[in-house]
Predict the structure.
Amino acid sequence: MENASTTDNPTWPPLLDVTRRPMVELLANGDTALARCTNRLIRSLDDPDGVISAFQNYAFQNLAS
Amino acid sequence: MIDRVSTEVVRAAQREAAAWPYRELDLARLRADGWHPTPIHDLILKVHQRCNLACDYCFVYTQADQTWRDRPAVMPDEVWRAAVASLGRHVRRHRLSGVRVILHGGEPLLYGVSRLGLLASELRAEMPAGCKVHIGLQTNGVLLNEKVIGSLRQHRIMVGVSVDGVEADHDRHRVGPNGRGSFAAVRDAIDLLRRPENRSIYGGLLCTVAPETDPIACYEQLRAFEPPMIDFLLPHANWERPPRRPAGTTTPYADWLVRVFDRWYDESDAISVRLFEDIITLLLGGGGQSEQVGLSPSAMVVVESDGAIEQVDSLKSAYDGACATGLNILHDDLDAALEDHGIVARQIGRAALSAHCLQCPVHQVCGAGHYVHRYRPGSGFRNPSVYCEDMRILIGHIRDRVAAEIRQRETEVVEAR
Ligand code: SF4
């Protein structure tokens, strides 16, 4: 089995640096798609359970994380 | 009397059918490396095996796995009670703060709303205080009327509806046994769900992508239903049975989704679209919440009407018996499912990806797509998605749009100083 931690390939870096608080807060403002996703990202940082993938064949938006 | 297939027989069949994960995933090594399973958060109860529609793409009835034929049409009370009790023990053991129970089928409303209500009441009573219980069902909508919706509301059962865009497109695939389309009935049902008194149980809409249809007309139709969320599903396909691609197209699914994305992204009051929001969140550096993209662990099992504990039934599109674990809720604990190689393979993120995907710059976002779409006979589920090119194009397009918006906002900030 491959060990993911030993692979070292170029991947796209995240588009947002969450340590840049003023920029993150600015993007989280409003009701745009980007604002909703930035808010979701901020909430997930505090989620002790981490983000879990939910059942696809059920239409419901889990806003908890 | 419910027969029990031996777990060993099932595991031997799985090892034969799919080298990854059943022969190649080294569970002992994973554990030695410090990996821990993610407890079950989504329990899907197949309360009714039959359906009142006969959709031509349905993975339950028209694809490789036909195990539904041997199961009770209706889930006996002893089965769901065993599932509820087992979930209660699981929640206590793992101190879960919330779980979701999804009533599925076939068509779950064939089970009858009074029985669904009883199930919901006993389920809530069984869970420990402090554990949030979300109960929902996914329906084709045909049986939803005022009385049924009233009862679902009373029992706080959320409702997701499957609808495939405009009437002509929907009715091409989603037909009754008489061949007649179901759109009119679904539209009436959604109109009821949209009423202010019912909105609290309106979960959202699922739509399967059909590349030969007009994507904007489809999106506008779904939007007109005012759902809290929409999700677009890629049709189930794999390397043995690739997706339909209209002549002259190479990435028709990406092309279709890109057009919807652009319309949606440019709207100021857009409705949530799970697939798009998942991709944006992943691009920003967060985690995905659904099965189609990302590397988040899947924490879901299905309980079939005979009590069989299975993986999600979209795997039925791969091969006969692909969902099987050999476990049964009448005899086995939910924790036993966390030892199943098929369940584990969906909880280990990058370690489940093929070498090809690990070399791919978008793998953190794509995650090799839906697990089901990676299947190739023999090698199993450690392959790129059969939608690989579509995924690259869709994700690349969304990244360009989001990166451009972030750059523009940064410029505005600098200029305002
Ligand atoms: S785009 Fe293709 S190669 Fe890249 S992670 Fe997805 S399936 Fe794998």
